[in-house]
């Protein structure tokens, strides 16, 4: 009888130990992976002189042609642009006040764009941008007026990290006396896009 009571007490004690959350030891190990950096790339172009960039042109006479003007476009970011965009606009027109009055559009039509292209700095990759511009006013000349009306010249292939933009202007031979003393600023904007179809300018 005493043995049964003792066995019962022992059994109850063991059960109580289980129910009270007895401690069990198991091996464990942990490892970490750190310094997993995520860095965004950069898309960047810079402009610099390369040869002639002689603006402003003063004292131009009808028939005068500028030297071929050049700007070096360099891709300096860590990402290569999909394409370039160029837009040429005008601002700050001043009427010289000689002869009948004229406006900005009329003076722009007296400035012919004789050359407009882009190519690799070391040669090759020639792209005649002038062939893209339409004669908006139908006078048989691609003028500064037509260039501004065209807007953004888009999807220009970047065939090298260093591209040379070139432009040349002519003050048309038949410009009338009323254009004496007129002046206008020509503004050039350059943009780089990461993907096809992306608009920048």
Descriptive keywords:
alpha+beta; five-stranded antiparallel β-sheet; three-stranded antiparallel β-sheet; 3 helices; 8 strands; elongated
Layout of SSEs?
Elements: H1 2-19, E1 45-49, E2 69-75, E3 83-94, H2 104-108, E4 111-120, E5 127-128, H3 144-150, E6 153-157, E7 162-171, E8 183-193
Beta strands, count: 8
Helix percent band: 10-25%
Number of domains: 1
Give Rg in angstroms: 37 Å
Q: H/E element string?
A: HEEEHEEHEEE
Physical arrangement of strands within the biggest beta sheet: 1-2-7-4-5
Q: What structural category characterises the helix and strand content?
A: alpha+beta
Low-confidence stretches: none
Terminal residue distance: 101 Å
Overall 3D form: elongated
**Arithmetic mean of pLDDT:** 89
Walk me through this protein's architecture.
- The relative contact order is 0.24.
- A hairpin with a 6-residue loop joins strand 4 (111-120) and strand 5.
- The protein has a 5-stranded antiparallel sheet with strand order 1-2-7-4-5, covered by helices on one side.
- It has one domain (45-193).
- The chain has 3 helices and 8 strands.
- By secondary structure, the protein is α+β, with helices and mostly antiparallel strands.
- It has helices spanning 2-19, 104-108, 144-150; strands at residues 45-49, 69-75, 83-94, 111-120, 127-128, 153-157, 162-171, 183-193.
């Amino acid at each position: 009888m005493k043995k049964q009571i003792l066995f019962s007490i022992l059994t109850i004690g063991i059960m109580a130990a289980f129910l009270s959350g007895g401690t069990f030891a198991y091996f464990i190990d942990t490892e970490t992976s750190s310094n997993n950096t995520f860095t965004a790339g950069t898309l960047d172009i810079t402009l610099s002189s390369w040869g002639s960039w002689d603006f402003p042109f003063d004292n131009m006479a009808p028939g005068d042609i500028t030297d071929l003007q050049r700007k070096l476009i360099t891709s300096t970011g860590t990402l290569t642009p999909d394409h370039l965009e160029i837009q040429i606009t005008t601002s700050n027109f001043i009427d010289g006040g000689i002869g009948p009055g004229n406006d900005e559009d009329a003076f722009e039509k007296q400035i012919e764009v004789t050359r407009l292209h882009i190519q690799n700095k070391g040669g090759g990759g020639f792209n005649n941008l002038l062939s893209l511009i339409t004669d908006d006013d139908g006078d048989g000349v691609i003028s500064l007026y037509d260039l501004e009306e065209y807007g953004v010249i888009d999807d220009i292939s970047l065939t090298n990290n260093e591209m040379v933009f070139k432009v040349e202007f002519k003050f048309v031979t038949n410009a009338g006396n009323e254009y004496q003393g007129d002046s206008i600023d020509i503004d050039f904007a350059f943009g780089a896009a990461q993907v096809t179809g992306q608009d920048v300018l």
